[in-house]
Amino acid sequence: MARANRHYIPNCIWHITQRCHRRDFLLKFHKDKQNWLKWLFEAKKRFGLCILNYSITSNHIHLLVFGSKKNIISKSIQLVAGRTARDYNLRKKRKGAFWEDRYHATAVQSGLHLLRCLVYIDMNMVRTGVVTHPSDWAFCGYNEILKPSQRYTLIDFNHLISFCGYTDHDSFRESYKSLIDQEIKNKHFKRNPVWTESIACGNLEFIEKIKDLFGALARGRDVRLLSHDTYMVREDTEPYNAIFDTQKVALNLKNSQFFKEFL
């Protein structure tokens, strides 16, 4: 399988999705989800990874991060994915791949679009019907955003609040809680492909900027208007449907990055 071109866009927010090999439920046990979080915390300490949100299911993960320096994101994903796989295989006396070869990355504009992405990530297990509210799922960022712990905090609140356009923690938390509650009230549980099939999401100015920065990688990709203020850049691909249906199709390879590639 050919490698995609290595690329790097500084000071960009990325929504990353990564799933288990063959869509297997390799993260179904709590101990393995906890282990993934442990190594994510280690990546934060070791490399200075700026984490904005996360969610772990039984067969895939969502990770929202800010990349300020080259290699931080790729090194962090190598560490977390590699150590999680190693620990699982050792415990289960298992051999073979734990993750799909590639992870998918979508550049997200700050402000309103970032807030929408936050909600989408935390609503993941509500969409699948596993829980009725994100607060009931221990392996997403919702509870940490609403009630941050004093120790082992993963989310960088100062960056998150600033990127979302707020100036203080209390107003941000209250607004975010309202957004989640409104999403549940309106029963907006459908999967939104913009967060898992595009290479960028934001207003038209942001999209054009990202396309220029991607250069040849974005050549031939369509810019699509999703609403009056939201655009995405993508090409016609098979959709990402890695929830719990083992019959659904794979991530599009052209929109994805290998573990060792730079963001």
Please give a handful of descriptors for the protein shown.
8 strands; single chain; Alpha-Beta Plaits; eight-stranded mixed sheet; 263 residues; disordered C terminus; alpha+beta
Would you kindly provide a brief summary of this structure?
The chain is α+β, with helices and mostly antiparallel strands. 38% of the residues lie in helices and 18% in strands. Residues 1-6 and 236-263 have low confidence and may be disordered.
How would you describe this structure to a colleague?
There is one protein chain. This protein is of the alpha+beta class. It has one domain (12-258): 2-Layer Sandwich (Alpha-Beta Plaits). Helix content is 38%, strand content 18%. Strands 1, 2, 3, 4, 5, 6, 7 and 8 form an eight-stranded mixed beta sheet that branches. Helix 1 runs antiparallel to helix 2 (72-92). The longest helix is centred in the first third of the chain and has 21 residues, at 72-92.
Please provide the count of β strands. Answer: 8
The end-to-end distance, rounded to whole angstroms, is: 19 Å
Largest sheet: 8 strands, mixed
What is the CATH domain class? Answer: Alpha Beta
| CATH-assigned homologous superfamily | Transposase IS200-like
Structural class: alpha+beta
Which of globular, elongated, flat, extended, rod-shaped describes the shape? globular
* Beta-strand share of residues: 15-25%
Helix content range? 25-40%
State the low-pLDDT regions, or none.
Answer: 1-6, 236-263
CATH topology, which one? Alpha-Beta Plaits
